[in-house]
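Objective 1.3, modelling of assemblies. Example input:
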Amino acid sequence: MAEPTRSTPRRRPTLADVAAHVGVSTTLVSLVMRDVPGASPVNRERIRRAAEELGYHPDSRAQLLRRSRSRLIGVVFRVQDPFDGDLVGGLYGAAGDADYELALSAVAPGRDERRAVASLLQDRCEALILLAPHSPTSFLAELAGRMPIVVVARSVRHRALDVVRTDNAAGLHLAVDHLVALGHSRTVHIDGGRAPGAAERRRGYHEAVRRHGLTDSSHVLPGGPTEDDGAAAARAFLDLHPRPTAVTVFNDRCATGVLDVLSKAGVSVPGQVSVVGFDDSRLARLSHVDLTTVAQNIGQMSHLAVTRAKDRLDGTDVGERELVVSPHLVVRSTTAPPTTTPSRPTATTASSPEAASLG
Amino acid sequence: MAEPTRSTPRRRPTLADVAAHVGVSTTLVSLVMRDVPGASPVNRERIRRAAEELGYHPDSRAQLLRRSRSRLIGVVFRVQDPFDGDLVGGLYGAAGDADYELALSAVAPGRDERRAVASLLQDRCEALILLAPHSPTSFLAELAGRMPIVVVARSVRHRALDVVRTDNAAGLHLAVDHLVALGHSRTVHIDGGRAPGAAERRRGYHEAVRRHGLTDSSHVLPGGPTEDDGAAAARAFLDLHPRPTAVTVFNDRCATGVLDVLSKAGVSVPGQVSVVGFDDSRLARLSHVDLTTVAQNIGQMSHLAVTRAKDRLDGTDVGERELVVSPHLVVRSTTAPPTTTPSRPTATTASSPEAASLG
DNA sequence: ATGAAAGCGCTAACAA
DNA sequence: TTGTTAGCGCTTTCAT
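Predicted structure (C-alpha cells):
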C-alpha cells in the first residue's frame, strides 16, 4: 500500500531545530526571524533557507509569553452582523498600522459576551474593542478596571470607558434636511426600538422636524433593527392618513423591509414615498435597492478605536473619552421631491394626531 | 484631583501571586483552577476566593505552551458572509462538545486567506477548518502536509484534504421535483457563476429536468452569488418568451435580487412565477420574503467538520475524505402551482430560443 | 557577530 | 493532599 500524504506529520520544528540544522545558536536564529540587525549576511541567508526548508513558523505563544507585552488587541464582535463585519475589516487595517495584532472573539447563539470577553482575557490581550456590546454598563466598567476598553457603536457614559460612535442625531438631521429640501413636509420616522443608537436617532428626528416647524406633521412609528421590523412598520405606515410622503428609517436592514412591503403594495419609491436608511451597508449599495442613506464612517471609526486603545496603553494623555464621528448623507435613488397631489385640500395646520387613527 | 478609575493597573496576577497570597504551592493553585481533583475542599475554597479577589485569569499562552497539545482548532471565515457566520456559530458549539477551543481568523478586504492561515499557524492550532476557501488546491494540499485540514462548503478533490459539503445537486433535484409536482414545466435556473457549488447546482438542475423529460423547456440564465447578480438575471428572465413559470436560484441572496426585480416589474410571486432559493439563510426566513428554499444543514456540517478534525488528530481511522450532507427543502410562500393562462395557445414544441430575442 | 544562560507563566513528573 | 523540579519555545541580558 502506498503511504498517502501524511496529514499528521512530525513535531513542528522549533528555533532550536533550525539552529541545529544550520549549526548556530538559537539567539542568532531568533534575531534573523525577527529581522533584527546583528547577524552576518551569510548566516542570515543560511538561516532563512533552513527555516523555509524545515517549514518553520515561530510559536506566537512562546513569543508572547516571553515578551513583556503581547501587542494584542481583543475584538468582540457579532458574527452575524454585517456592520460588525465591516468594522472588523477596518480594524485589521488599523491594527496593522499601529503594529498590533487582533484576537477575534465572536458573539454567537450560545456564546454570549461574557464568554467572548473571558476568552480574550485569557489570551492576554492588552486592550479590548467591543463592537456594539449589550452587556450592562457595570460589567463594562468592571472590565475597564483591568484594561483599556473601547466601546464602538454604542453610547455608554462612564468615566473609565472610551467610546467611538457615530453622531446618530446628526445623521437624522441630515436625512430630514435632505427630505425637507426636496419639498417634503409630512414625514415619518421608523424607530429602532431598543437597539443601540435608536434613541439618539429618534431624538435627532424630533429635533430636525421641530427645527423645520414640522412637528405637527411628523410621526414616529415603532420598528426595530431587522427587515421584519421594517416590514411590520411599513404595513402600519400604509394605514396612515394622510399618508406621509417621506420616511426615515432606523437602519438599512429595516429600510429594506420597508421598501419590500411598499413595493408589494404597489406604492412606488421614490414616486409616492421617499425612503432614507442608515448605515450605508452593502444592502443599501445594491443596484436594485440603491437606497439613500446616512453613512457611518467605518474606516474612521476603526482607526479611532485602535488609536484610542493604543493611546491608553501608551499612557498618552487623551482628552475626551467619547469620540463622536460625523456621518454623511449618500443620496441615491429612493428619495425625490414629493408628487404635488395632496389627497385633501392642504390645511395650513395639520389636524390633531389622534385623527389619523380614526377612519 | 481625585484619581480616576485606573484603566492600566498593576501587572496581571499570576499563579504564583495567588499561591503566595494563600500560602500554598503553585501546583495546588493550578489543580484548583483546572478543576482537577487532588486538593482539599478547604484549600480549594481559599484558592478560589483568592483568585477571584486578585482578578486572576490563567494565561492561556503559558498553558498552551506548556501542554503538549494546544487543543486549538483554527477557523478561517469570511467576516462579511452570513452563511459563514452561521457556520462559526455552529462550530463553537461543536468544538465545545469535543473539548476544543476555536481560534478565529477572518478573511476581509485587505486580509487574504494566506494571511489568515499564517496567523493561525503561529497560534499553534492543531487543525484548520476553512470555510468556503478560494485558495488554489495546491496551497490547501501543501497545508494538509502540515496538519489536518477540513474544507467546508467547497468541493476539493485531493487525497490529503477532508471536505464537508452539502449535496448541491441533490438540492436542485429537490427544488425541481417540488416545482414539477406543483405542475410547472417551463423552468429556469439562475446560475451562481464561478461561486463554490454553482457548477454542481447547475448540474443538478440539468439532471432533474432531464429526468422529468423537461429539457426542452428548461433554461440556465447566467447569474452569481449576490443580490445584484440576481437582479440582473431577473431582468433577463423578464425578456424570456414564453416566460417560464418557475425559477430555481443559485442561492438566497441572489433570489432576493430576483424577487425584488419581479416585484417592481409587477410580476406576482408565486402567482405568476414561483421562486426557489438555496441556503435557508436568515434572508429566506424573513416574514416578508418567506422564500421556499433548499436548506443546508448547518448544525450537522459544523459538527462533522469538528469531528473530522478531531478524528484526524486522534489518528482515528476514518473512511471517506469527503462528507456530503443532504439538504432538505423548506417550502414557504414563493412557490405555488402555475396559473393556467398561457400567454399564447400552447405549442407542444417550444419555438427556437432565437425567437425570444426578436420582437 | 555570536553564544550561554536565565526566565516568561504554566503543567506534569515525581517526591514527600 | 501537598510541594519540588524541570522545561514548553522563545527573547533577552550579558559575555565573548
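Residues 298-314 of chain B form the longest helix (17 residues).
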